[in-house]
Amino acid sequence: MMNRRDSVGVKVGEIQIGGNAPVIVQSMTNTDTADVEGTVRQVMDLAKAGSELVRITVNNEESAQAIPRIREELDKKGCSAPLIGDFHFNGHKLLDKYPDCAEALAKYRINPGNVGRGSKRDPQFAQMIEFACRYEKPVRIGVNWGSLDQSVLARLLDENARLSEPKPLSDVMREAVITSALESAERAVLLGLPKNRIVLSCKMSGVQELIAVYRALAERCDYALHLGLTEAGMGSKGIVASTAALAVLLQQGIGDTIRISLTPEPGADRTHEVIVAQEILQTMGIRSFTPMVISCPGCGRTTSDYFQKLAQQIQSHLRHKMPEWRKKYSGVEDMHVAVMGCVVNGPGESKNANIGISLPGTGEQPVAPVFEDGVKTVTLKGDHIAEEFQELVERYVISHYGSNPGNLAAAE
Ligand code: SF4
């Protein structure tokens, strides 16, 4: 296992970020926060998919009033995911006017570039920190490239212009992002917020910029770091860009919590960003969440889409079962299931997985050998291979991960 950077642990409700805790997955809702029912539903979906923290925008009075009701509804429904309030421009006013909102949130996100303009910036930032102190909440000081504190940038540009050999503009911009985060954190500490209640982020939309900024940030402080590529984009571009950036940093032990900022396709499920975050961590061997399906890409030897459908069905089934399995079958998240298209690599991959099936390729005998722990246990044939294999996977889970021996009997 790779070495993680040492960071000061921050408790957000019952969840710890940094300080040797596992890398935490978080997400953000896109409902109107004032719509209590819709927001509760989405938070529950995100939490069920594995989001350990959920951020909600608190952008106006209606949303601030909704927060305690959202918390209450979630508690009633047994969802304990801590809620993070995302504040911009008017956070100091909302936290002042709605103490129940301040209390119900487990953490406040403060963007130093959007906390107030000109002479209002410092007092309004101080007010936000005072609320965090009063309600004993942690904060994320979340700098964003797109809303960088212009006063910090102007100061660094002036200093740069006075150098005998001025640095390129891109270097000054990166430094401004880092300086904004570090100076804001320093101010928060001076205002009385302990270091173990501060998480930092410096989100950029370019992969190389993000990597450069976080490497520097990681060297210059020991605050817990929230990683994410901002405005990652849509579809495969958003996933690839986020993975490219985060993988490099995570591999160097940098990052205590991650969020994948995907633009959802219209009507698409918001939980996709949670699954991508988990898959980045799991495929890198950092943390396991759900049994992994190993499937081949298929080729001319698989002229039907039967095996693609089976791989998809098994993957969705495993995800669907995980909330229940997580409670009953410890270690099941490390299981590997192989679904392979033909005899070329099928038996080999199936033998290496915990349980695997090698489907018949075009022109092969219509039988599908199943391997469990490297040994062929059964050969499936006929029209119900998919259902029968799913059942075998269930039985494997019960017999290998069930701590209660009665589980096995119940399955028989
Ligand atoms: S296992 Fe068979 S079907 Fe799958 S990619 Fe390899 S040769 Fe093609």
From TrEMBL:
Function: Converts 2C-methyl-D-erythritol 2,4-cyclodiphosphate (ME-2,4cPP) into 1-hydroxy-2-methyl-2-(E)-butenyl 4-diphosphate.
Pathway: Isoprenoid biosynthesis; isopentenyl diphosphate biosynthesis via DXP pathway; isopentenyl diphosphate from 1-deoxy-D-xylulose 5-phosphate: step 5/6
Name this protein carries in UniProt: 4-hydroxy-3-methylbut-2-en-1-yl diphosphate synthase (flavodoxin)
Catalytic activity, as annotated: (2E)-4-hydroxy-3-methylbut-2-enyl diphosphate + oxidized [flavodoxin] + H2O + 2 H(+) = 2-C-methyl-D-erythritol 2,4-cyclic diphosphate + reduced [flavodoxin]
Family statement: Belongs to the IspG family.
Domain IspG TIM-barrel: 10-277
Taxonomic superkingdom: Bacteria
A Pfam family reported for this protein in Swiss-Prot or TrEMBL: GcpE
Organism name: Methylocaldum marinum
Enzyme class label: oxidoreductase
GO BP terms, alphabetized: isopentenyl diphosphate biosynthetic process, methylerythritol 4-phosphate pathway; terpenoid biosynthetic process
Gene Ontology molecular function terms on file: 4 iron, 4 sulfur cluster binding; 4-hydroxy-3-methylbut-2-en-1-yl diphosphate synthase activity (ferredoxin); 4-hydroxy-3-methylbut-2-enyl-diphosphate synthase activity (flavodoxin); iron ion binding
Gene name in the database record: ispG
UniProtKB keywords: 4Fe-4S, Iron, Iron-sulfur, Isoprene biosynthesis, Metal-binding, Oxidoreductase
E.C. number: 1.17.7.3
IspG C-terminal domain mapped to chain residues: 293-394
Gene3D superfamilies in the cross-refs: Dihydropteroate synthase-like (3.20.20.20), Sulfite Reductase Hemoprotein, domain 1 (3.30.413.10)
Keyword Cell membrane on entry: no
InterPro entries given in the database record: Dihydropteroate_synth-like_sf (IPR011005), IspG_bac (IPR016425), IspG_bac-typ (IPR004588), IspG_C (IPR058579), IspG_TIM (IPR058578), NO2/SO3_Rdtase_4Fe4S_sf (IPR045854)
Cofactor(s) the protein needs: [4Fe-4S] cluster
Residues involved in [4Fe-4S] cluster binding: 296, 299, 342, 349
